[in-house]
Specification:
Layout lengths: L11 H14 L6 H6 L5 H14 L2 H10 L12 H6 L4 H32 L34 H8 L3 E3 L2 E3 L2 H6 L3 H11 L6 H23 L16 H28 L13
Antiparallel strand pairs: 1-2
Helix pairs in contact: 1-3, 4-6, 4-10, 6-10, 6-11, 10-11
Length: 283
């Protein structure tokens, strides 16, 4: 797994940034992208000082969600509640799975905007400054409750193997996206997910959907970047010798974040229709 600073272990300024990300991303957790940056001395603090204004104003989120609107994704066979029950998923579990899928559909486009803005800074571009003052923005209510992130290393070998089916290799280590680590709370359901999603990892329809999302997000980045203030003097920019490793990590998220939107939508759409007393979760 890529190194990450767990939310429970965050203190001081990192903990405060985590709180802001949870509030502004409107999900009750911090994504692995930010948790990974937090393991590198000064990186999350500098990134947030430089890019946080785009998200405090809501411009980054609105652009991200606009890019993901109306994305057409492949369909999976619909699931019945009887099948969910066989896999150990009761009504509470179904609601948690539905919210989990919706949360990754919500958060992953925002992470793509963050990583796109950060990539521009690391490749030498600088915001012009002088943009309009940030408008007041209120995030939507957070989704949840969500299951915990499962530590793959703590799983029994068969479950860890199933989870790794949907992982990707980064620096000779397997990176398993958070969507699957949450769904691993239901091992039998996760085995089904791994079975039905694995053929879609490389098929043309899925790659096309991921490509459409990336293109839509990329098209939004210049306008958001143009609203950023000049780079702050403090905290200092991390050393340039570390840029290649961070850019490589951003490349990983550029692959997995679109998948989280596409596969989150596919899994959410395959769940049984909401019963009258259930609330439908939306990004």
């Amino acid at each position: 797994m890529l190194a990450e600073l767990h939310e429970r272990d965050a203190t001081g300024e990192i903990a405060a940034i985590y709180d802001e990300i949870r509030r502004l991303w409107a999900v009750p957790y911090v994504s692995s992208l930010q948790r990974h940056l937090a393991t590198r001395s000064g990186w999350l603090e500098w990134t947030w000082a430089a890019l946080g204004p785009a998200f405090a104003s809501g411009r980054g989120q609105v652009a991200a969600w606009r890019a993901a609107d109306h994305l057409v994704v492949p369909r999976l066979p619909p699931l019945s509640r009887a099948a969910l029950a066989v896999w150990g998923v009761d009504a509470t579990g179904e609601a948690a799975i539905r919210a989990t899928c919706a949360s990754f559909v919500r958060v992953s486009p925002v992470n793509l905007v963050l990583s796109g803005l950060l990539r521009r800074l690391l490749t030498g571009e600088r915001p012009p400054g002088g943009g309009a003052s940030p408008s007041r923005w209120t995030p939507p209510p957070a989704l949840g409750p969500l299951p915990p992130l499962v530590d793959p290393a703590a799983l029994a070998p068969p479950q860890e193997t199933v989870l790794a089916i949907l992982g990707t290799t980064v620096a000779q280590q397997v990176f398993v996206p958070g969507l699957y680590r949450m769904l691993a709370s239901w091992p039998a359901f996760m085995a089904h997910v791994a079975t039905v999603l694995r053929p879609h990892l490389d098929d043309d329809a899925t790659r096309a959907a991921c490509g459409r999302l990336l293109a839509a997000v990329d098209a939004e980045i210049p306008a958001v970047f143009a609203t950023l203030p000049p780079l702050p003097e403090r905290p200092p920019m991390p050393p340039a010798c570390e840029f290649p490793e961070v850019l490589a990590a951003l490349d990983t998220y550029r692959k997995t974040s679109p998948e989280m939107v596409v596969f989150g939508r596919m899994l959410g759409d395959a769940l049984p229709a909401c019963q009258p007393h259930q609330e439908r979760t939306t990004p």
